[in-house]
Each structure stands twice: as C-alpha cells, then as structure tokens.
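Input record (Table S2, row 212):
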Amino acid sequence: MKLHNYFRSSASFRVRIALELKGLAYDYVAVQLTKDEHLKAPYASLSADRLVPLLEVEGEKLSQSMAIIEYLDEMHPKPALLPADARGRARVRALAQTIACEIHPLNNLRVLRYLARELRVKDEEKSQWYRHWCREGLDAFERQLAGLPASVYCHGETPTLADCCLVPQIYNALRFEVSIEGLPRTMAAYHACMALPAFQKAQPSSCPDSQA
Ligand SMILES: N[C@@H](CCC(=O)N[C@@H](CS)C(=O)NCC(=O)O)C(=O)O
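Output record (glutathione complex):
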C-alpha cells in the first residue's frame, strides 16, 4: 500500500492513525501542499480531487479519508474502528463527521487561500475565521460526547473512527491557537489517544516529511 499524504494534513493524519492502529505497513509518499504538488503532475493525474490523502492499494486509488478508513476497517477488521452495533456506528460516524464534514471543509487550505488571495482578507481575520469554525465545531463535538456514556475514548474503551478524526483536529486547533477551554470530554479522549503508540507514530512530527 502507498499513502500519498502530507505530514500536516489532518485528513492524511486520520488515515495514518487508522493504518497504525491496525498495524498495517505502507509506503509513505509525501505530497508537499505548500509547494502545490497536489495541483501538479505527477500527483494531479493520480488524484481526481487533487487533495490528500490518497491510498494506492492493489492498483486501485482510494480517496477521501473517511472512505479509506472504512475500507481498511472492512478489509482488516481487527481492531475494529466502528462499533459492532448499528446505533454505536451511527454515533461514531456522527462524531467523525462533525469534524470531517462540519469543521474541516471550512478551514481547508484552499478555503483559507481563497479568503486571503481572492477576497483579500487580512491574516488576523483569516485566523479569526479559522478559530471561529473550529471552536464552534468542537463545542458541537463536546455536546455530543456529553450525551454519551462515560468512556476512555470518544466512544467506548477502544479508539474508533471518531478518535481518528478528533486527534488531528485538536492538533490543528493547538497549532492555530484555538481555545480548548471547557472541552473536558473531548480533551480527555484526545489525551487518552495520544498516550497510545499508534497515535504517536502517526503524528506530524513523526513523519518523514516533517519540517521542524
Ligand atoms: N474530505 C477530504 C478532505 C481532503 C482534504 O481537503 N485534504 C487537504 C489537506 S487536509 C488538502 O489536500 N488540501 C489541499 C487544498 O486545500 O488545496 C478527506 O477527508 O480526505
């Protein structure tokens, strides 16, 4: 398997976590987003959406982090990243999508670049945009967790798809100085995950293309 990704990409980070949790070996192919490598050959001809991550597996090119993680979970069921029951799966997917579908698209590189380059939004206003949508999404995440039974991770006693999404989002929140005050369940799950070797190995600073 070949994972085309970028160390700081949170969508890539989600997939790296899933691969590490499942103990799956992969070739790391760096795509430098800051150098627009995702928009140029050879990556642009490989990736239909010109986004990372992209997983090459047995001649197939899989895109979209959530689809990739669910594929890995189906092909390599242990340890499971989704609960065995339908209701549990719906809860975990709702948590994961709160991050992947509500927060991330508003704060993605091309959106921030459009704000800055086309709309001429100042740096401070761009940061304010980032912090606003990130914090609003994390508040929604915390309210969802508050409605669930107490657990070590986001849902239950083992990491799930929700944790694969949460950890990269908190990593970005810390990087962009988003307040993480008043998010007790969210931060407890984050710290529980970060104590695990799989999350440590997947984090940006452990990546071959990591820039200090
Ligand atoms: N929904 C996609 C999002 C993929 C995505 O937006 N990746 C970002 C990096 S985290 C990217 O490639 N951005 C390039 C850009 O915005 O130009 C997924 O979950 O894989």
